[in-house]
Amino acid sequence: MIGIKDSRRRTAQNLSMKQDLLARYGAAAPRYTSYPTAPHFCGSIGASAYRDALSQLSVEEPVSLYLHIPYCDTLCWFCGCHTKITRQYRPVRDYVDSLVQELLLIAETAPPGLRMSHMHWGGGSPTLLREKDILRLARAAIALFRPLGGFEFAVEIDPRDAGGGRIASLVTAGLTRASIGVQDFDPQVQRSINRVQSFAETARVVDSLRERGVQNLNLDLMYGLPYQSKARTLATVQRALDLDPDRIALFGYAHVPWMKPHQRLIPEDALPGPEERLEAFDAASDLLVRAGYMKIGIDHFAKPTDSMAKAQAAGKLRRNFQGYTTDTAASLIGAGASAISHLPNLYLQNTAQLHRYSDRVRQGELPIDKGVRLTADDRLRAAIIERLMCDFSVDLSKLCTIHGTAPTDIADALARLEPMVSDGLLIIEAGKLEIQPIGKSYIRQIAACFDKYFNNGPGKHSQVI
Question: With 50 as the cut, is the pLDDT of residue 31 above it?
Fold first, then answer.
């Protein structure tokens, strides 16, 4: 029998080890929704490169489409997205005009007959669009890029502006999956991030979607927000479970006020520290797993019957700028201000400045601001990082063979991993890398070892915990 003293000693040792690992590996690192990451895009890659890449797409291969709606009617202080606050609808309507025009420009450049497997609307708040513009935008996209069988049309929904006929219009437009923004249900936490949204308000949107036949529902939650304790995080997760979603995303709040000055409105002294954040996330993860959800990657949970859980089980889970996805299309076409496209061997990003975006589109220009061409080495490292982020394991030897390289080409990464191997975060045997349970919290730092561009300077990325 283990005595009280032995139990306390083990608890103290575990706490000391956790604190040591946080000190070693809890620093900032990219989220790796792409590789190379967006800070390494450069202005020398522009519209000409985009036109060439679009023109070379094969009609035999499906594409996916991302439309960015950057407008909101209130500013959530935690937000890290490209957004613009407006109380008037005219700028939103005019923006939809520009977005439809950009889609026409893309379609004129790409081969006729392209088909799409996925379409995702993100923001900002797509549900700020009025019914007429929801239908106009969806019909324009579908007319230009015809959906394949099994087509998924997903939209990010803010329950606070999803009233009226907006849900009905989205369903008429072909909505198949809704991602509902929540963050936290605690009133004090909500006030501290300027997002007051009752449980009843959220439940009404969930019920409205289900009544109209939309059964694939995601809820987006956050941990690490001001005034969030482990107990409050668990309370929010339990309330989310009461809504019975197919997926729950539990994102870590990224406090980056040097990039997003409005985050300075958040009371920093109320933010939980790394140990509190890790404790809250681990407890919430345990609760979700006990409730029957599969843990997906670093921050997603899905029912075993959901397509994301099935994709993970089959080794087909992917990661792009929307996070984890079941979309296997090799090309992602982004439209709208700040939207990012991923075409074979190329990343491109539209200008984020709304006036500049609209002016360029009106002039008949593809509004590319910057991008990056992928080298053979980039493609190998991107594949390694994606598998690590999706599977927590990777067959390094196999990927090197597929990409026509030798393990010596990633010797720099293997050298950087040595301290992590010694600390028990991962095992490398017979050319295969396997993240251990204790190392999964630090997967972004592990992935960063393969990032030849990574420079962990001040003010570039959010903390990994």
Answer: yes
* Residue among 271, 295, 317, 286 at smallest CA distance from 463: 271
Q: Give the tens place of pLDDT for each residue, 102-114.
A: 999 999 999 999 9
Q: What is the DSSP letter of 453?
A: T
pTM over 0.85: yes
Q: Taking a C-beta distance cutoff of 8 angstroms, is the pair 125, 79 a contact?
A: no
**CA-to-CA dists, residue 364 to 91, 219, 360, angstroms:** 20, 38, 6
- How does pLDDT run across 166-191, given as a tens digit for each residue? 999 999 999 999 999 999 999 999 99
Task: Please choose, from the candidates 313, 284, 291, 198, the residue with its C-alpha nearest in 3D space to the C-alpha of residue 245.
Answer: 291
pLDDT for position 3: 59
Rounded distance, CA 21 to CA 419, Å? 11
The 8-class DSSP code of residue 246 comes to S
Q: Is the pLDDT of residue 45 over 90?
A: yes
Q: Are strands 146-157 and 177-183 parallel, antiparallel or unpaired?
A: parallel
Provide mean pLDDT across the span 112-139: 97
pLDDT digits (tens, 9 = 90+) for 251-285: 999 999 999 999 999 999 999 999 999 999 999 99
Give the pairing type, strands 393-395 and 346-350: unpaired
What span, in angstroms and rounded, lies between the C-alpha atoms of 208 and 193? 26
